[in-house]
């Protein structure tokens, strides 16, 4: 047998996730009971907690995909609408542009608008000399109002002509017009909404008749509601804005030269293996199971039906619990190096808000679209109770979260990279409880772990140094083959290490980035391999610094039938 061991650097692809299939345990019992008591028709969860000794995420589905008694069961791969959790992904698209130097966070958004579109698209008319920046847009400080205005139809009833063919931002203002989805001509719409330009035109709400019999004119509707801008200086105040995040999709398109859906697919979703994620239903994989938005009404479930809205980047992203696990796994490593640099990853999870004059703000809430967390927030009365009760013992440094609610959708996600914890909850039900997703999140973290994820009874003691290590004896479990054994003691950043074992050009075994979760922990894995051939073992580090020295006392050793072949800790 010929055997070589080398270290090198390779490009990062999608992280490996092992989704356990064990069902019917106490974890399931707790989640099933809570889903039922909260009148949730369907839900899916993704959960990982390294502090509990978990070695792989729990990703599971509960309930049904629609109100029908014959509806299919929810699975970890069922696609749900994320509602406002979508904003974190929209702002992450902005982060990609910043990381690549295409824009600066403090650039004036006017810079990307086509010539001739006019400053009303990028200026608060009350403060025409103040720039609106990308930073203001992603931190809810742009001075744009909260929402696209509702209207009154020819009968005087409130309607939402920015939605279709069903849905509506509020129960009292249902969708009107827009018989088909998606609604994706964002820049055209915002031009019609924000400017009185005679060249502006949009198909959104076309044909809708308003009270008085006139056709819908978005600019006139906006002006009848006092315009789309608040009367305060951009950057001086924070007010949550779906309107601003909807606009970001069009701005990213102008800056990148790609459609927003394509840009996110190519630069956020597919690099992480998130193939069950898309902004529009017709971009989801063929045959994927979709959760239909449902409302709990008059003590029964009723389908809202699938719908869309023009400010889709504020809440229309669709994805599965399995893909949210992939996203969250990457965020435990700050999204680096797959999506952006480590520095940009840290920026995403820490305060990006600034005052109008560029100074620090008191009570900062937002990074790149995500609501940020740090340990000082644990004692604040404004901090949500479910966070205090379910996560108070953990390190919140660089943590972030967001929730979401739309017609037939309630969602929640929290990620704590310093502790190695994430929980994502998606449901297809509203009008049951305004805090259903948060209550379900708390149940996830309090439920007994399933057997495959129970913490070890005692940690494995750290290995002696390679120079004094006694070779482990062969286990005798590989008759007529050769036993290959890998011993890896991780450093402070276990998810940065991966390795492959090849025989010729064939990969026999491998471990990807994000596979190893526990810092300063010894992993020992044994495999049976052919007794003849030429083999190569390659070990890589995502940050080129190995597992020893400045990053801890990590090391690796490889054995073939009990004989050590290679050991070390410094590699690229």
Structure notes:
- The chain is an alpha+beta fold and 572 residues long.
- Helices cover 19% and strands 20% of the residues.
- It starts with a strand and ends with a strand.
- The N terminus is likely disordered.
Concise synopsis of the structure shown:
This protein has eleven helices and 23 strands. The protein has helices at residues 26-37, 86-99, 134-138, 186-194, 218-224, 242-256, 260-269, 321-331, 342-348, 385-391, 436-446, and strands at 2-7, 42-49, 58-63, 80-81, 151-152, 158-159, 163-164, 294-297, 300-303, 308-309, 318-319, 371-373, 399-406, 409-416, 421-427, 429-430, 482-489, 497-503, 506-511, 522-529, 534-541, 555-560, 563-568.
Key attributes of the depicted protein:
11 helices; disordered N terminus; alpha+beta
**What structural class should be given to the helix and strand makeup?**
alpha+beta
Strand order of the largest sheet: 3-2-15-14-13-12
Which descriptor suits the 3D outline? globular
State the end-to-end CA separation: 26 Å
């Amino acid at each position: 047998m010929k055997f070589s061991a080398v270290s090198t650097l390779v490009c990062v692809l999608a992280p490996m996730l092992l989704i356990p299939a064990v069902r019917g345990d106490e974890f399931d019992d707790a989640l099933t009971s809570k889903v039922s008591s909260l009148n949730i028709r369907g839900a899916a969860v993704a959960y990982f907690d390294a502090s509990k000794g978990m070695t792989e995420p729990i990703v599971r589905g509960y309930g049904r995909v629609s109100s029908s008694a014959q509806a299919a069961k929810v699975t970890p791969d069922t696609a749900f609408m994320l509602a406002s959790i979508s904003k974190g992904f929209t702002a992450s698209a902005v982060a990609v542009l910043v990381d690549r130097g295409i824009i600066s966070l403090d650039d004036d958004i006017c810079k990307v608008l086509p010539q001739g579109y006019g400053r009303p698209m990028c200026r608060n008319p009350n403060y025409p000399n103040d720039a609106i920046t990308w930073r203001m847009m992603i931190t809810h400080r742009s001075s744009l109002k909260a929402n696209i205005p509702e209207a009154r139809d020819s009968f005087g009833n409130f309607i939402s002509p920015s939605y279709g063919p069903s849905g509506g931002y509020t129960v009292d203002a249902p969708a009107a017009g827009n018989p088909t989805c998606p609604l994706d001509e964002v820049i055209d719409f915002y031009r019609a909404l924000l400017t009185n330009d005679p060249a502006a035109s949009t198909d959104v709400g076309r044909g809708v008749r308003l009270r008085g019999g006139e056709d819908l004119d978005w600019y006139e509707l906006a002006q009848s509601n006092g315009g789309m801008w608040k009367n305060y200086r951009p950057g001086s105040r924070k007010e949550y804005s779906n309107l601003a995040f909807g606009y970001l999709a069009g701005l990213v398109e102008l800056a990148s030269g790609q459609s927003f859906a394509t840009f996110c697919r190519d630069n956020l979703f597919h690099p992480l293996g998130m193939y069950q994620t898309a902004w529009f239903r017709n971009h989801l994989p063929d045959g994927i199971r979709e959760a239909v938005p449902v409302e709990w009404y008059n003590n029964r479930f009723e389908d809202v039906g699938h719908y869309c809205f023009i400010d889709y980047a504020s809440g229309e992203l669709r994805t599965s619990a399995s893909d949210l696990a992939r996203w969250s796994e990457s965020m435990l490593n700050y999204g680096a190096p797959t999506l952006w640099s480590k520095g940009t990853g840290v920026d995403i999870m820490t305060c990006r808000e600034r005052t109008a004059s560029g100074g620090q703000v008191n009570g900062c809430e937002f990074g790149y679209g995500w609501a940020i967390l740090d340990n000082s927030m644990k004692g604040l009365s404004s901090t949500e109770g479910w966070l205090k009760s379910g996560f108070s013992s953990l390190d919140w440094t660089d943590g972030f979260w967001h929730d979401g609610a739309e017609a037939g959708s309630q969602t929640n996600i929290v990620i704590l990279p310093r502790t190695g914890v994430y929980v994502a909850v998606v449901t297809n039900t509203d009008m049951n409880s305004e805090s259903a997703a948060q209550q379900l999140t708390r149940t996830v973290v309090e439920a007994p772990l399933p057997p495959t994820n129970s913490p070890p009874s005692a940690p494995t003691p750290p290995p002696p140094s390679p120079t004094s290590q006694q070779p482990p004896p062969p286990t005798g479990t590989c008759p007529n083959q050769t036993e290959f054994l890998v011993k890896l003691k991780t450093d402070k950043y276990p998810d940065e290490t991966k390795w492959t074992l090849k025989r010729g050009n064939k990969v026999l075994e491998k471990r990807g980035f994000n596979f190893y979760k526990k810092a300063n922990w010894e992993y020992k894995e044994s495999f049976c391999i052919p007794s003849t051939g030429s083999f190569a073992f390659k070990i890589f580090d995502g940050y080129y610094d190995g597992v020893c020295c400045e990053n801890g006392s990590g090391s690796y050793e490889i054995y073939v039938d009990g004989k050590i072949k290679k050991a070390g800790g410094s590699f690229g």
